[in-house]
Design goal:
heterodimer; A: mainly beta; Porin; eight-stranded antiparallel beta barrel; 10 strands; elongated; B: alpha/beta; Double Stranded RNA Binding Domain; two-stranded antiparallel sheet; 11 strands; about 25% helix; about 25% strand
Chain lengths: ~210, ~210
């Protein structure tokens, strides 16, 4: 019981500390709809279709009015079906199949954002961002109805730019429009990477 | 302000829900697209050197390492299709007792255990269901001079067609399998699709001809 009390007290103190930081104007949340376009070998060798099925978000701590740092997370689903074709898979062996490729990525990254006009009371605030972390990948390939699956965690880095349009000069909430480039090494089925250029649209608001 | 944020979040959530989460590949293929056709051949075989073949009037039904012969309407449709395309490729059907160059086995395979199947496994499991004595080569074994199928787990049935080299069996003292075709996927045990399935195997094997 004594141990439980200590844990509860620690949790309450932690919540109070986070709450105090938030009230200081520190924490902000971004939620995005994410439209992803595969590039490079991902596009050329595996899935060329753009993916409209994605979400992303981050929780950022405002170090000052220009710099913020936090955690980024996302989820994207890629899918493509190729018409029936015959593949030469080994000496003397051929397989005729409709091939379907399906990839899901879930990046989890540390992120930093620089807002050059942050010291000015401007409704439109351009920003640039950088992030790096782990990309959790599920990769399935089907020959007809027969599939193989692979899961992996790989390095991912991200650079981005965009604008935040606040609801007013004194408001910390508004909409966000941006684009990011994802550098995502991956090696399977002749795919060298899962790089992509993503367009993001969403909302941001302070946590308080 | 909080009402506006709540509305924004609701709109965002609705937009996300509208995009759907994950597209399931198996929900987006038809029965025809579910099928795969795998062929293998012995690269040392000269298919032009064979002229005649024989084929049984029944199909071997292989299920969990046991087998029996059956001759239902679907089986007959597959046998007829094999005869049709063998003839189109220039091979002449003869009776089993007429010293044929090739023997054709047609097999219906059911495997209720999931696992890995390569061609070697396939023959380890089922080898001998066509007794070599059936072809007049009692005492000989079967040989597989090439690497087997790619690796996929069997969750449904399959049809396979094997081409056996009887012409050189005496010299090699074994019956080599020189070509195999495997059909897997939904709806293959159906009389109406048998011809198209066998045609697919022969179409992707242009070397299989004596012309």
């Amino acid at each position: 019981m004594k141990r439980m009390n200590i844990v509860l007290t620690a949790c309450i103190l932690l919540l109070a500390a986070v709450s105090a930081k938030a009230q200081e104007g520190g924490l902000k949340v971004d939620l995005y709809y994410n439209y992803s376009n595969p590039v490079g070998s991902f596009k050329n060798n595996y899935i060329s279709n753009s993916s409209p099925r994605g979400v992303a978000g981050d929780v950022m701590y405002n170090i000052n009015r220009q710099w913020s740092a936090g955690l980024y997370f996302g989820y994207q689903d890629y899918y493509q079906k190729y018409p029936r074709s015959t593949y030469h898979t080994a000496p003397g062996e051929d397989i005729s199949a409709v091939v379907s490729n399906s990839v899901q990525t879930a990046p989890f990254m540390a992120k930093g954002v620089f807002t050059p006009l942050g010291n000015k009371l401007s409704i439109v605030q351009p920003y640039i961002s950088a992030a790096a972390g782990v990309n959790f990948i599920t990769d399935k390939q089907y020959l007809g109805q027969f599939g193989t699956s692979n899961t992996a965690g790989r390095f991912i880095a991200q650079g981005g730019a965009g604008v935040q349009i606040n609801f007013g000069r004194l408001s910390d909430a508004g909409i966000t429009l941006g684009a990011v480039y994802n550098y995502a090494p991956y090696n399977r089925f002749g795919v060298g990477s899962l790089n992509s250029i993503d367009f993001q649209a969403g909302v941001h608001f302070p946590l308080r | 302000m909080s009402t506006r944020i709540l509305l924004l979040c609701t709109a965002f959530a609705a937009a996300v829900a509208g995009t759907g989460c994950t597209k399931q590949p198996l929900d987006h293929i038809s029965q025809d697209e579910s099928r795969i056709y795998i062929t293998n051949f012995d690269s040392t075989a000269n298919f032009k050197s064979y002229n005649t073949y024989t084929i049984s009037d029944s199909v071997a039904v292989i299920s969990d390492q046991s087998h029996k012969m059956e001759s239902g309407s679907t089986d007959q449709a597959y046998l007829a299709a094999v005869k049709k395309y063998m003839q189109q490729q220039g091979y002449t059907y003869v009776a089993r007792t007429a010293n044929p160059d090739l023997a054709v086995n047609v097999n219906r395979i059911y495997n209720t255990t999931s696992g890995v199947i390569s061609y070697g496994d396939y023959w380890d499991y089922y080898g001998g269901y066509w007794d070599p004595f059936y072809y007049g080569y009692g005492g000989y074994g079967y040989g597989i001079p090439y690497y087997g199928y790619s690796v996929y787990s069997i969750t449904e049935g399959a049809m396979s067609v094997d081409l056996l080299d009887l012409k050189n069996a005496a010299a090699k003292k074994e019956i080599n399998i020189i070509w195999t075709g495997l059909i897997r996927g939904s709806g293959i045990f159906n009389t109406s699709v048998a011809d198209a399935q066998v045609q697919a195997l022969f179409t992707q094997s242009p070397y299989l001809t004596n012309k």
